[in-house]
Amino acid sequence: MSASHRRPPRFAVGCALAALSAVLASPAWADPAPSFPALLARLDQTPASQEAEALSEAAEARVRQARVRPNPTLGLDASNVFGSGPYRGLDNAETTLSFSQDLELWGRRTARINAARADAGTATLQRDLAVLNAAGRLAQVYAEAEAAQRRAVLAEDSLSLTIADARAALILVEQGREPLLRGIQGESEAAAARASRDEAVAERDAAFARLTAVAMLPSPVTGIDASLLDRSPAAAFAGSADPTTVRVAQAERTAAERRIDVERIRTRPDITASVGVRRYEMEDATALTFGVSMPLPLFDRNRGNIEAAQADFRAADARLASARQEAQADRAAAQARLAASVSRVSAADAGVGSAEEAYRLSRIGFDAGRISQLELRVTRAALISARTTAVDARLARVRAEIELARLDGRAPFQGAE
User: Fold this and answer.
1) CATH class of the structural domain 8-19+26-69+104-267+302-408
2) CA distance 284 to 292
3) Out of 39, 245, 320, 365, which could bridge 249 as a Cys pair, Cβ 3.0 to 4.6 Å?
């Protein structure tokens, strides 16, 4: 027998088996996190939703303020007082108490209210869009956390398979059927699998921390039981003709158009009417006064503001055209990606089944001495890759559903079973 096939001492093999058993230790998980529908029901508690709701309420408050008419002006004017000669003191005073009111002619108030309503409509749609984006982000973080958890489980399974194969190789080495090099290779593979397991666990913990922060949970997430990766996407959704992004752009265009009306009306004179009572101390008499005042548009005709509002309108119109084109392309792309991801999941599941059967047969052949350790390592690597691919395919399907749901104006998996 050559030196490379010389039987190793039993003590060395036993130490190697003990070392392989020690790498299997892993931390236990605590209680699972709430399901995705339960977290979705609490979406209004997230900062993004609360910010959008506050901005919408502020816009509605500005509509109420726009309906309010300007306050009247109360004036008191005294003349012919504290002078010299007959105007010494207050004996010859002329005192006028007046009441002035801005008439808001030319549709000034109506234009102001319409502009505020348009801004409020835009804020409402932006609130809805913010909620949709928050729902999509929650779904993505939840799915990524679940995928990280599955990868950690797969890494644990991979470590177990690697250790089992290494143990089988060490037994063959002890029996003299394999050289000592095979046992050393098995130990090295087990160490690498342990490092991969530790990395996957760290990624899982980081993903759980992100989910805890995004969902604003009172206690850290330590596990996920209610699967989102295994849920089938929602059926074809018959929503509005335009996605929320297009409707927001449309509302912004309408608001810009209303602001043009406001600026144009400001070029017309702002007429103020007044009525008052004048007291004549010398004659001991009283008389009424009436007056109308208006600014003369000699210098400021508000042309700059009108041109700025018109430019804002053209910009909003361009954004609307761009949003429509992008929405049409994005929807077609999202539908194509979702269909492809569904097919990819089916193919990945079939690949996992084939890889598991191939590894099972390879392990039987290896134990019987008909298959080399190299062939067993290849089938094990194929099994690990197939399981990882299945997780990645499900994560891609969730991301495609998130994008399509955003374009449909709904929460991800809304209506799915």
Assistant:
1) mainly alpha
2) 27
3) 320
Q: What is the pLDDT of residues 233-261, one digit of tens each?
A: 876 555 556 888 899 999 999 999 999 99
Adjacent-strand bridge partners of 98? 75, 276
3-state secondary structure of 383: helix
Closest by Cα among 25, 359, 27 to 194: 25
Q: Compute the distance between CA of residue 268 and CA of residue 247 in angstroms, rounded to an integer.
A: 33
**What 3-state DSSP class applies to 102?**
strand
- Residue 19's Cβ-count burial label (10 Å; 0-12, 13-18, 19+) is middle
Distance of CA 113 to the CA centre of its chain: 32
Pick from 263, 246, 40, 243: which is nearest to 137 by CA?
40
Please count the other Cβ atoms lying within 10 Å of the Cβ belonging to residue 300. 12
What pLDDT score was predicted for residue 16?
44
Element (H, E) at 101: strand 94-102
Domain positions in the chain are 8-19+26-69+104-267+302-408
Task: Give mean pLDDT, residues 299-318.
Answer: 92
Give the DSSP per-residue string, 266-311. TTS---EEEEEEEEETTTTEEEEEEEEE----SS---HHHHHHHHH
